[in-house]
Design brief:
The structure is a single chain. This protein is an all-beta fold. It contains no helices and ten strands.
Length: about 180
């Protein structure tokens, strides 16, 4: 469980461009400070996780997990009098299998889901972005030799993440976020 209040105030001065390699700093204009920003956030989140590991046969282990997340966020852009509130919840799962081929070699496979509500990320209209979600697929082999003094592991995986917030600059001194779309590793 978490309950977090955050408040930030600031301002930017746009000074133009400088060439650090040519040490050209004399051309910087004397610019006034742009109008500042001020915002406050209030975020409450709670989670519960249930996990079980069973061995239906001696060499096979099965891991099953479920997680419930509930988040309530409020973003107050004090400078522009914009208030956004978003409530998100989700159930995500995880399953994994491990099979001991021999006493020294095991293979495994795993699938998992993720859910991460945004806290500080709002679009250009001050609305809180949708949560980041993801999936992972992984398979591999683990080995141990020489009385567990030498271990060799190899794995292949794929991670898909969606709605990752990316910071974007609007007019000088103003920033907002956009969702990235699907990213795959």
């Amino acid at each position: 469980y978490s309950d977090n209040d955050y408040h930030r105030r600031g301002a930017y001065a746009y000074l133009g461009f400088a060439n650090i390699y040519a040490e050209d700093f004399a051309a910087l204009p004397d610019a006034p400070v742009e109008p500042g920003f001020e915002y406050a956030t209030r975020n409450k989140a709670s989670s519960a996780y249930l996990q079980a590991q069973v061995r239906p046969v001696e060499r096979l282990a099965v891991l099953i997990g479920l997680r419930y997340d509930d988040a309530d966020a409020e973003y107050n852009a004090i400078t522009t009098a914009t208030i956004s509130r978003k409530q998100d919840d989700d159930i995500t799962g995880r399953i994994g299998l491990t099979y001991d081929i021999t006493d020294h070699v095991s293979v495994y496979g795993m699938y998992g889901e993720s859910f991460l509500p945004t806290i500080f990320d709002v679009d250009e209209n001050g609305q809180i972005l949708d949560p980041e979600t993801g999936e992972i697929y992984e398979a591999g082999v683990k080995t141990e030799w020489l009385e567990q003094r030498l271990a060799i592991n190899a794995a292949v995986y794929r991670i898909d993440r969606d709605n990752i917030p990316i910071s974007v600059e609007g007019s000088p001194g103003t920033f907002f976020s956009i969702p990235s779309g699907l990213q795959r590793s």
